[in-house]
Each structure stands twice: as C-alpha cells, then as structure tokens.
Specification:
The complex is a heterodimer of chains A (165) and B (570). With 165 residues, chain A is of the alpha+beta class. Chain A is built from one helix and ten strands. In chain A, the strands form two sheets. In chain A, strands 1, 2, 3, 5 and 8 form a five-stranded mixed beta sheet that branches. Chain A has a five-stranded mixed beta sheet with strand order 4-10-9-6-7, with no helix packed on it. The chains are: A alpha+beta (165), B mainly alpha (570). Chain A: Subunits I and II form the functional core of the enzyme complex. Electrons originating in cytochrome c are transferred via heme a and Cu(A) to the binuclear center formed by heme a3 and Cu(B).
Chain lengths: 165, 570
Amino acid sequence: MHIHKYEKWWLVFGTGTLIVFLLIIGVSAFHAGTHPNNSKWTINYEKVNEIAPFDNPGVHKVEGKDWDYEVVLVASAFSYNPMEIEIPVGSTVRFIATTTDVVHGFEVAGTNINMMLEPGYVSEKITTVDKVGEYTVVCNEYCGTGHAMMYSTLKVVDSDDNSSH
Amino acid sequence: MTTAVTSKETVNKINSSNISFTKNNLSKVDKKDAKLSLAHIYVAFTALLLGGLAGLLQVFVRSGQFKLPFGIGYYQVLTVHGVLLGLILTTFFIMGFQFAAISRTAGAFSNTQRKLGWIGFWLMTIGTISAAVMVLLNEASVLYTFYAPLQAHWIFYLGLTLVVVGSWLECLAQAMRYAQWRRENKGQTSPLLTFMVVVNNLMWFVATLGVAAEVLFQLLPWSLGFVERIDVLLSRTLFWYFGHALVYFWLLPAYMIWYVVIPKVIGGKIFSDALSRLSFMLFLILSVPVGIHHQFTEPGIDGFWKFLQTVLTFFVVVPSLMTAFSMFATFELRGRELGGKGVLGWFKNLPWKDSRFLVPFIGMVAFIPGGAGGIVNASYQMNELIHNTIWVTGHFHLTVATAVVLTYFGAAYWLIPHLTGRKLTNKLNNYANVTGIMWAIGMFIMSGAMHIAGLLGAPRRSEFSTYGGSEQATEWISYQIAQAVGGTILFIAILLIIGVVVNLLWFAPKGEEEFPVGEVAEGAGKTPAILENFKVWGVILVALILIAYTIPIIDIIRNSPLGSVGYKFW
C-alpha cells in the first residue's frame, strides 16, 4: 500500500505525540500515584448508616496514617451529610464517600476531586488541599428531581487555626 | 447544407444525451430504495425539530430566566432532547443514508432485502413512538443513558430495544446486498461507499450486543418485576461497552461523506482508496474496547484496566489523523488544479458557495477542537477535572452536534432532492449555507461557554441552581446565559434547516440532483485484498474486546455488592 511521504511524516509525528502523552499519563499514574477513584470497597447500601465509618459522617483527624484527615460523607437523594467540611490548608485528606440509594456524584467544583458514588461501593480519593478557599461540592450525576439542589461546602482554611499545623 | 449540419448536431446531441441518460440511470438510487431511504429521513428531521425545541427549553431554564409551564420537568425535557437527537435523529438518518449509498454504488436492493429494510424501519419507528410516549407520560425521565437504579417504565426499555433490533434487520439487508455484489464481482474491490457502510454496520452490531445484554438480561426483567435487584456497575459497564462505539457509529457516516462525496463535490479525486479503507478498519477495531474511558471516576474497576483502555482510546487518533491528511490533500490537489499558487493560495479556490461543500466543511473544522477536547477527556486522571461537568456537553456538541450533524445536513441538501427528483436551487443553496454559518456561530457561543463553565466546575445535566448562593455557582450563571444565546441561534438555524428540507421534499422544482460519488485519484496504489478481509479484522476486534473487558467484567461480577432495587426519583 502506497503512503505519501508527507503523510508518513504526519503520522509519525502524530503517533509520536500520542506516545509522549501516554507516557506522561502512565508515569504520573503508576509512578506518582495520581489515579482517579479505583476503590474496590463494597458495602450493603441499604445499611450504610449503621456501618462504620458511615455511622459517623464528618471530618476526623487521624494519626499514624499517610493522611491527616478522613472525610466521611454520605450522599442520598437529595443531600449530603455533612453539609460542611472544614480542613486546614496543606493537609492530606482521604475522602471516603458512598450513597444510600441511586448513583450520585461527588465533585469539588474546580478541582480534581471528582468521583461517582454508586450503590454498594465506597469511593475514595486521597489528595492534598493546598489552596485556601470555599469550594462547592456538587452532585454531578443526574439522580432525580432534586439533583441540582444537592450540594455541600468544602472550606479550606488557614492552618493557623489549627495547633497541629 | 445548413440543415445537414443542424441534423448532425442534433444526432450528436441525442447520442450524448442518451449516453448521459444511461449513465444517470446507473448512478441513481433505485426508486423503490429511494422510498425506504426517504421514510427514514422524515423521522430523522421530525426528531431534529422536536429535539431541538427541547434543547431550546433547556438552555432557557438553565439561564435562570425562565420556568417550564404545565409542570413539565427539566429532566423530562432533557430526556426528550438526548433520546431524539442522540439516538433517533442519528440512527434514522444513518440508516436512510446508508440504504441510498448502497443502492447508488452497489445497485438496487432485491425485493427480499428491501422488505427486510422496511420491517426494520417499522420496528424502529414503533420502538421510538413507544419510548416517546413513556417519556411524555413522565414514566421515563432517566435521560438517554438510562442509568440504573433509576427505573423507567418497561415499555421505555422495550421501545429502545425495538429501535436496536430494527436497526439490526436493516444492517442485515445492507450486508446481504454487499455479499451479493461480492458474489457477482469475484476478485474485485467493492465500491468504497458500500464497503464503508458494511464496516459501520458491523461495528454497530458488535457494540449493540452490550446494550442488548444490559436491556434484555438486566433492565427489562428488573423493570417488569421478575427480579428485584440489579447489578448497577455491570449495567453501566455494558452500557459504555456500547456507548463509545455509538459515537463512532455517528461519526463514520460523516467520514463516508468526507472521504467519498466531498472530493466529487469539489471536482477532485479521492486521495487513496486503500487508506480510506484502512482508517475504517482501524475505527472498527478501536471502537468497542475503549468504553471504560467513560468510567474513570467510578469505583470497582481496577486502574490497570482503565489505563489499558486509555491507551486503546488514544490510538483512534491515528485513523483520525489519516482522515485529516486525506481531506486536506484532496482540497489542495483540487485547489492547485484550479490554479491556486503558493503555500495556501489553493485554499481560496475551493467552492465556498456550494452548500454541499461549505456545510460539511464547517463540520470538519469543528472536529479539530472537538477531537483535541476528546483527548483531554480520555486522559485517565485528567478526566477528574472535567468528568460530568458541562465541559463534556460542550465537547460532544462540537463533535456529534456540529462535525457529524452538519455533515448530515450538508448531505441531506443533495440527497433529499436526489431521492425526490427535485433540484437544490440557487436560492435554497444560499439558505443552506446560512444554516451552516448560523450553526457555526451559535455553537461557538454555546459550546465555548460550556467548555469554560465546565472547567470552573459547573455540572452537566443539571437544572438551574444557585447551590445555596455559592460564589462558584454565581460565576457559572453568566456562561449559562451565553449558552441560552447560542442555543437560541441554533434553534433558529434548525427552523431554517427544516424549511430547506421541507422545500426539497415537496416544493422545489422538479429536476435531477446528483448523488456525488468520487473516483480515486490516478496514481493512488492498488487496494490490498487484506483490507476487505472481514475475518482478519473481526478476529482482531474480538481479541481486543476480550483483552480489554474479560477481567474487568469478571471482577465486577465476582466482587458485586448487594444489587439495587429500582427508584423513581422524578
């Protein structure tokens, strides 16, 4: 099959770019660990409120782990528990969230904290909150009439407020 | 003497007109096939009008300045928009176009084949109507992705099943015509357009097996109450096994028009038959084993498999680059033939006033940012920034709702008069050009605003909301007003398109409109037989699907939590 010389250059350049992109994504994922939510943790979605840690939603300071805080969050049509999350800037946080009914989203608007919450699964994301501000948490998966009424707030506050930082 | 000359001239004229008459007969869609093709086009453009109206209502609601009357729900309207434009307009136009394309390039359908086509058409139409009734009764406000455990009325699922089964019968009829051509022309390379149709149908068939399994084994028994619970993650995975190939099923007919029709419209040649076929085969094998890139932020699927499908997704860039090269090579060769000089001088020699060229060309241009945005979406962890934000809506309004549909409209402007025996007059051609330009302007505003708002975090598929007066949500509102402006321009363009189409169907002057089919450029290499060997490419396709999906699906089933009961939260 005849391929024009310029087309060969074009395809080599294009495919080369592609491979560079893939290497960047791959190294960043498997070497630096920047995976999206890949959690395998399953749960009985009808009994979420009785099962730890979801029997106690909120922000918990932890010791001896690779992260400083655990944020436990429960989504149900059409609200989040807790409605407000406050974390000192610079802390490493593990977000742990699930749903008690249909599929919901957990998106901290304007950041890369973004995961699907599906019945029967717990979703997780570990990240460092490095910018002070008030972020809106929105449900970004259609869940019914009240879908757009579903929100929470993540407040990343100055670390002076917290003695441990 | 004068008389003699005149009569000789007359004879010559008659002879040449005879020749062109015979040639015309060979190059026309058979009359009975034209009816079948037109039936599809009626449904497709009805869907465009109604779906477009739903879109207009949505952008109005989301601007915060307008509320829906009569208790109509936003998500009901959104379901109408997605189903009618994403599934009905596309599938019906594609099937109508493909029947005409085969009849034009491989020859008329046999009565049996055509009958199969009609049965398919009626199944699809009945399915569409049943699903539509359920949506209008507010029994199925589940959007066109119908994710469980939101549970629609079983008739909605059954209706969509009929659409798919009907399309299978139509694919079968088209495949039978292709097989007949191969039998009658042993050892020859098949007509390019017919070949492309068959590749697209094969891809559609393999892809729809996923959604068929989801509907038949999960959604239908569950919505009928035969089983109480459903495996949500499995249903989503089966949906996306189908869902990404679905977008290529929309795209490939546009590619057919770009590769085969446009060269003829501009008076040029097809750059390479072999490369066109290769790019279609690459689309075929890279269409299905990539669906998990829609599920990057979901739990229950291992990162390794998500990344593997990222790699497979990226490789579809190769046939896209091949297509871009071929198109611009055709344009340049033709532009230079017409005397264009210098590096870019050929560009102005293209037929900019011909809607058959201009409208699809605008689509091609939109595909450049559309494709680049697609690479962002498929970039594994980068997806977290934009997943389910309105950026994604902006993305597919550039790809399917501009690149693809403008190409369909540009084709409809010659296909409809070809089928009805009318002419695309100069005046209609000018209106047609206006539709393309208005679409470009409207979409630039709407899709641009969606992309920016999405980067700022605005979610897709959401009614107007201030999210408790949040500062971020306030930022999104000005972009939502811009979307309403763009959407309004697009709706006016739709009205104009319907006007042109109605004229071409019933009112334009009688005449003959060409179904343009390009010829391959001289000096383009012979097409290797391997490119038409469906066994080889079929085996590669199945192998890639097995590699990409076996272990993720086994994992999902083996680790599955308690299934979900149905919910009706609307």
